[in-house]
Amino acid sequence: MHKKELDYFFYPEAIAIVGASQNPGKAGYQVLKNLTTIGYGGHVYPVNPKEKEISGLVCYETIQQIKDPIDLVVITVPAQHVNAIVQDVVNRGDVKAIVVVSAGFSETKTQQGKDMEDDIVRMASQAGIRVFGPNCTGVINTEIGLDTTIEPTVKQVKGGVSVFSQSGGMAGSILLFAEIQPVPLGFAKWAHVGNMCDVNTLDVLKYYGTDEKTKVIAVYMEGFDKGRELMAVASDITPKKPIIILKVGRTELGSKAAFSHTGALAGSDAVYSAAFHKVGITRVDDLFEMIDTAKAMSMAPPIAGHQVCIVSEAGGPGTMAMDELGKYSQAALAPIAKKTQALLKEKMPSMSLICQPDGYMDITAAAMEQHHREALEIVLEEDSVDAVILISVPPTFLPPVSIAREILPVIQQSNKPVLVCLMAGKWVDEARVLLEEEGVPTFDTPERAVRALVHMIDRHKFLERKSSGKGDHHE
């Protein structure tokens, strides 16, 4: 296989960790632990002049002593030692990629820090080596059990979402939020590039854009100074796969904090929103919305229209869903044919409120598991319905798992997205696990399900504009 430049980060066959340590308080300890306990099958070489052996592996004094070939070097030593190590790496002649975990460079806003960083880039680029960082945690690739990070060891569940972040803290948090879903949200690749001295947002986006394992791209962004290039790259990718961006710096205070963190100007928020919309980027407002949207887009079939039917077993949560849906002009309630309404009235409990208003069903707390199934079957058959949000607050006499078992085959047989909100907490955990293990996305609240679905509708509308020729994005 012909390797692309970033493949040496994501698919290395041999990795050296400079600064590997036995001390749990050191970054080099966590990197080595992640590389040796998760399932990475390549060669791992610890480098530390003070140790002979770490975790059962021979430890080398310098990187020069390793006679075997190395693709990737992870550097975790204090900043003042990094440049000499980069020079050693260059002298080897075989290394293609470096992750500099160490902090203390341009992010310190000092001339010395900036000069040291420029020096790393100069040495590496002359040798044809690409660099992640400094001040970063590197990469994860679930396909090969790779984790070069200093993040807590996360259970790697393979999936179609790939994550990219301009903040290490947020990059780690996205993974931890994904892990605490009823079924951990599977991901393919993950990257944090820190100061972006070499590999930057555009490089990773392009790489994910052509990566077969990546079906949905999720990005945490503070700012980017090559906005036009970013939009051009995104507009090549979005017709093929969704890009979800959580872009901070929405307010004056937020943009000042973003600038002091990464030194990247946040830019006018309205300009970002308009540009994202134009090229089909899905913009989300917070971490929950990012995970919910990634979950919906990676698990449910794509929506083929904008008309939604809401089926709720409880009036309050149903009203909450309607309230949320009412905020978005791009979504509408689906009109239900009179004969279908009559069939629903016949099949549902007598006190049910069918199509009041049209497209909304309150099947009431008298609804048993078969009512949930029948309501779903009937509305999914309706041509006008493009998607269903099913909400239930199962009473004590109705085990949530029974509902999940009844509705699951109906959802699986349909090519329309069904987003399920079972409320709430431990009472419905087992049912949500059952659904998510079978690929059905579930949500904590009605509003969160609605927001995820609206993002799916926006994406459908973008693809429609593209296919009708109204979406020529390069200006």
Topology-level CATH name of the largest domain: Rossmann fold
Shape: elongated
Residue share in β-strands:
15-25%
Question: Tally of extended strands?
Answer: 21
CATH top level assignment of the largest domain: Alpha Beta
Overall structural class, as computed from helix and strand content, comes to alpha/beta
Low-confidence region ranges? none
Q: What's the total helix number?
A: 16
Number of domains: 3
What is the averaged pLDDT score?
Answer: 93
Describe this structure in words.
This protein is α/β, with parallel strands linked by helices and 475 residues long. It has three domains: 1-136, NAD(P)-binding Rossmann-like Domain (Rossmann fold, 3-Layer(aba) Sandwich), CATH 3.40.50; 154-299, Succinyl-CoA synthetase domains (Rossmann fold), CATH 3.40.50; 301-463, Rossmann fold (3-Layer(aba) Sandwich), CATH 3.40.50.261. The chain contains 16 helices and 21 strands. It has helices at residues 7-10, 27-37, 79-92, 111-126, 168-179, 201-210, 227-237, 252-262, 269-279, 287-299, 315-325, 338-347, 369-381, 400-413, 426-437, 446-467, and strands at 14-18, 43-47, 53-54, 57-58, 72-75, 97-100, 130-132, 138-141, 146-147, 158-165, 187-192, 216-221, 243-247, 282-284, 307-312, 332-333, 353-354, 360-362, 387-392, 418-422, 442-443. β1 (14-18), α2 and β2 form a beta-alpha-beta unit. It is elongated, with a radius of gyration of 25 Å. The two termini are 36 Å apart.
